[in-house]
Amino acid sequence: MFAALKRKRPEENEAKIEQEIIDPGKEELSSKKQVVETTVDEENIHFKGGTAAIEQETHNNPEIAALPFSVRHLINLTDDPNLPTITFRYFVLSIIFVIPGAFLSQMSNFRTTKAPYSIFFVQIACHYAGHFMARVLPDWKIGLPGTRFSFSLNPAPWSIKEHVLVTLTAASGATYNLGYAPIVLAELWYGTRVNPAVAIFFMLSIVWIGYSFAALARQILLPDPEYIWPQALMQTTLFETFRKTDNSSALARRQMKVFFFALLGMTMWQFLPEYVFPFTSSLAFLCWVAPRNPVANFIGSGIGGMGFLNLSLDWSNVNWNGSSIMTTPYWTQVILFLAFAFNCWVLLPAAKWGNLGSFKHGLMSNSLFLGNGTTYPVLEVLTPDYHLNTTAYEGYGPMYMGLQNVWATFFDYAKLPAAVTWILTFGYAQVSGNVRRIWLSRKAEKSTKNEGIHHQYHDRLNIIQRQYKEIPWWWYATLFSVAFVILIIFLALGHLFIPIWTLFVALASAAVLVIPFAWLYAISNYQLETGSFNELMYGYMVHTKAGEVHQHPCGPSVYGSIAGDAWYRAQYMLQDQKIGHYMHIPPRAVFFSQIFGTCMGVPINYAVIRWVMDTKGDYLTGKKTDPLNQWTGQSLRTSNTMGVQYAVLGPRRLFAETEMAVLPWSFLVGAVIPPILFCFHRFFPRLRIDLWNVSIFFGGLAMFYGNISTGYTSAIIGGYVVMYWAYRRHFEVWKRYNYLLAAAFDAGFNLNMLLVFFFLEQASKFQCQNGGAITKHLWKDASLSTADLPFLFSSMSNS
């Protein structure tokens, strides 16, 4: 699990790579596709003791020995390249699963109650739908009139490769689009309607930019077996179980029974914290002991407190506090828990009862305040054309942030340079070795036929992939060029609120971050978010002479959509391509499925945006009150606040006060700490400082959820049991069921949320709106007492 962090001397890497180029050995495949097999007996291996049998095979076969321990025990090491991939059934099922997913995912971003569309639902349903189509469709050949092209409605039995490709298509298309925020803000808040064609192609372009940026990291991080991509490994395990079920494996049938029982159990369980007994979301023992002691309430409460000794039985709190406890390596979970402990158990009491800062109002709030602690009237300091009214601003005074929000912002900025300098120090040897492999593969492509990047690695998975054509670089270049030209045209015509030259900065900054962020995600399963960094950069740029005419509040969200999606979409593409690598899917088929899914999903995204603006727009802006308090558009309000902060006020005014004046120094802190730790690591290697990734630690400190501090203690307990104790002491059971249970629990949670959304939400119509909100807050944290009522009412009035 930690193998990706081991440092090798560059000269050893280079010598080994040169030897592999000169003498690739007997394991080369012919250009003709063939079934690739291994001597591991998948059906009978558990009778001899699965782990022992595979390890015995590992000693005899260097191709298997080159794979990480968990990968060689979970991934099928045989391949049949003749299985169908892009078929008529693939297109039908892709359309069926992408359209509702794109609709629900986009709609959920406008609502308080989400309607999740789980990729695990697609992965499960697609298996049975595919087999159904293979049974009922006739084997007819269909020819297109006027062409020689024809296809079969039912070419062969349903294949695992079709199953994977449909799932990857849904993962690309059945999502929301980050570009919705500036489109909605411009129309509903600022009266500027973005042309539908401009909106759709803008949303497509930011996705294509991200997909094209995946090429920067693809050959560095995907073929190398040491980068396991834990989330991809989890999904692959579920695919493998379905594959074995098709082959009548008794073990696989038992695994599927466990999977569906766990899915059903989680679906039923989540009704307790989500609907029946919300107090199970936050069990605060200190508050039970001293219910009227305000100090004990603050220390123990998971809502508006430190969350000390606070446990949660809500899967959404336990499993999504920065990581998934059943897939994320234990060392990552430890770092995140320490970040939480430092945040809530050290900094919070120091701010509340000590002298950490002079502004004592709104300690755990994410709002902006006046000097007296009241909410800052942001709209009152804007002119009719959305520029700063300096007279009004001077009258109200500077903006203040709650102290926890200040240090969360500090570490949010610090994590980005920390990620870059961490990979330049701790990850340099392996990354540079992989870059050299790419360079040598380029030479080999020119001198020797059919030798690409997979010939630089000699593990079984890369040997299998050698028989498939790689994705040409010009495909990515074409994708980038089309998206880039579209954005340049829109910016030149003044449709998107930002100057053209800022687009180049956005793309350059995103290009710098793609490899460090993807490298970290590949080894740790922790996704670093860009946070408000992009909006900050835009704020600095437009508050110069070159950008002073582009201080529209929608500008930061446009800039953030372009720069942010360049990383997020690159990560999604890389992760799905790693699934394709594990499942032996032709890379070009994976690429096609991702582009096809996006081209289907984005028009659906825009149709939802148009429908919401036309029918729910007044609820989103607050002109009318939603009786169910569901169409709140909270993320839109946050984007609008950030637009005013960074585009109208500007970072210099925002950071003028004492507490916030320290924020720009965060970039220096983040940049220098990894090199310092690297020096210590060289002198004291046994301390394993290479596992204490400060960019993850800073990211954990930057995870600011207002007044919520529950779930972390339950998460570290669960992570210890699953990813440390079970992995080390009961690996045979762990490898059979851990990733399956992780998928089942996530799928069950999402199914529960969907059921609550469709069938139980209407019950809230019959509740008194204010009384229902108070009851929900009281039950959501069983720690609340009479001392909490003032905080409770103030928090509701600010929401």
Automatic annotation (TrEMBL):
InterPro entries, sorted: Oligpept_transpt, OPT
Transmembrane regions: 86-105, 197-217, 258-276, 330-351, 473-494, 500-522, 662-684, 704-727, 739-760
GO BP term, example: protein transport
Keywords: Membrane, Peptide transport, Protein transport, Transmembrane, Transmembrane helix, Transport
Record Pfam families: OPT
GO MF term set: oligopeptide transmembrane transporter activity
Principal subcellular localization: membrane
Subcellular location: Membrane
Transport as UniProt keyword: yes
Membrane topology value: Multi-pass membrane protein
Assigned GO CC terms: membrane
Comp. bias intervals (Basic and acidic residues): 9-23
Segments of this protein annotated with the region Disordered: 1-23
Coiled coil spans: none
Record PANTHER family: ISP4 LIKE PROTEIN (PTHR22601)
Family: Belongs to the oligopeptide OPT transporter family.
Protein name from the UniProt record: Oligopeptide transporter OPT superfamily
Species this protein is from: Penicillium concentricum
